[in-house]
Specification:
Mean pLDDT: 85
Structural class: mainly alpha
Number of helices: 4
Radius of gyration: 32 Å
Largest sheet: none
Number of strands: 0
Oligomer: single chain
Shape: elongated
Distance between the termini: 70 Å
Low-confidence stretches: none
Order of helices and strands: HHHH
Length: 137
């Protein structure tokens, strides 16, 4: 019985694997070629930025140029973070507010009807005042 170390090592890929990879790259190239011009330009720009970043990281990680390059993209990141978080917050709060108004809900009970007292009725803890003191929240 042959052992794992004495078994021959087959480094040639199977024909099906080569055909599958060839088909994948052909389809990818066809999809890229079918893109409108502005998408091709953006794709080329993204690829260029990626290559420059990888070259800086490999050959000049402590250079002044790489520090400036990084600072530019950190500034862009700060701006887009603020914009995206602002949009997400506004949309989420606006949607919840609109739904609450449409359903007539007021979870804070802000409506003040003319009453002799603004005290709201309170349900006592069924376990008693000692349990209520221990488990307030």
């Amino acid at each position: 019985m042959p052992t794992a170390s004495s078994a021959p090592c087959d480094t040639e890929p199977a024909r099906g694997t080569i055909a599958a990879l060839s088909a994948f790259w052909t389809k990818l190239a066809a999809k890229l070629a079918a893109l409108p011009l502005h998408n091709k330009v953006l794709f080329a720009l993204a690829c260029t930025v990626l290559v420059i970043e990888l070259l800086f990281r490999r050959f000049a990680p402590r250079s002044r140029a790489y520090a400036r390059w990084t600072a530019v993209f950190q500034a862009i990141g700060k701006v887009w973070t603020a914009v995206l978080l602002g949009v997400i917050y506004f949309v989420s709060v606006a949607l919840v507010s609109a739904m609450m108004k449409l359903l007539g809900k007021d979870p804070l009970d802000r409506k003040l009807d003319p009453e002799p007292s603004f005290w709201r009725p309170h349900e006592a803890n069924p376990l008693g005042p000692e349990a209520a003191a221990r488990h307030q929240f």
